[in-house]
């Protein structure tokens, strides 16, 4: 299993399930920060067509390109289904944001060989590890 630092450093395309159009929500501001630091961020939200200037998809299965990491901003109860979808699209890792955890999602992800992180903020890890894909100062 890769560490959170390794997962983030080795991922290029991140699908964000539960991405929000509302700039006041962490499901908007956190992925936007990741986008600004050079990652390809694909919002997944069935109620939006575009977020952060990026095309938005209703489900993971609708994304027309490979995804390295699925980052989740949904209630814990929704994550087992998201884990199944992440496995189905061939993602390499599943990351549940701070405050989100699921034994069932973990079991599904790990059984399929996905790296797994839960109850931890991807932006905190990016800042802590000083990771940026833009080549500039993180």
Give a topology summary.
Elements: H1 4-10, E1 13-17, H2 26-36, E2 40-44, E3 50-51, E4 54-55, E5 69-72, H3 79-88, E6 93-96, H4 103-111, E7 115-117, H5 122-129
Parallel strand pairs: 1-2, 1-5, 5-6, 6-7
Antiparallel strand pairs: 3-4
Helix pairs in contact: 3-4
Structure description:
With 138 residues, the protein is of the alpha/beta class. Helix 3 (79-88) runs parallel beside helix 4 (103-111). It has a five-stranded parallel sheet with strand order 2-1-5-6-7, sandwiched between helices. It is built from five helices and seven strands, in the order αβαββββαβαβα. It has one domain (4-129): 3-Layer(aba) Sandwich (Rossmann fold), CATH 3.40.50.720. The protein has helices at residues 4-10, 26-36, 79-88, 103-111, 122-129, and strands spanning 13-17, 40-44, 50-51, 54-55, 69-72, 93-96, 115-117.
Describe the structure in brief:
The protein has 138 residues and is an alpha/beta fold. The protein is built from five helices and seven strands. It starts with a helix and ends in a 9-residue tail after the last helix.
H/I helix tally: 5
Helix content: 25-40%
Q: What's the N-to-C terminus distance?
A: 25 Å
What strand line-up does the widest sheet have?
2-1-5-6-7
Point out poorly predicted stretches. none
Order of helices and strands: HEHEEEEHEHEH
Largest sheet: 5 strands, parallel
Cα-atom radius of gyration: 13 Å
**CATH C-level label:** Alpha Beta
Please indicate the percent range of residues in DSSP E strands (runs of 2 or more): 15-25%
CATH second-level architecture: 3-Layer(aba) Sandwich
Task: Write out the CATH superfamily name.
Answer: NAD(P)-binding Rossmann-like Domain
Q: What is the residue-averaged pLDDT?
A: 95
CATH topology label: Rossmann fold
Structural class: alpha/beta
Report the strand count: 7
Total domain units = 1
**What gross morphology would you assign?**
globular
């Amino acid at each position: 299993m890769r560490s959170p630092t390794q997962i983030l450093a080795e991922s290029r395309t991140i699908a964000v399930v539960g991405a929000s159009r509302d700039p006041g929500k962490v499901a908007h501001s956190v992925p936007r920060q990741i986008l600004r630091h050079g990652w390809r961020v694909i919002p997944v939200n069935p109620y939006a067509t575009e977020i952060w200037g990026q095309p938005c998809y209703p489900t993971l299965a609708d994304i027309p390109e490979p995804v390295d990491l699925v980052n989740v901003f949904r209630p814990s109860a929704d994550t087992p289904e998201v884990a199944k979808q992440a496995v189905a699209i061939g993602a390499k890792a599943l990351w549940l944001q701070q405050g989100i955890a699921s034994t069932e999602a973990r079991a599904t992800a790990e059984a399929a060989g996905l790296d797994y992180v839960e109850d931890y903020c991807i932006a905190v890890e990016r800042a802590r590890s000083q990771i940026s894909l833009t080549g500039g100062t993180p």
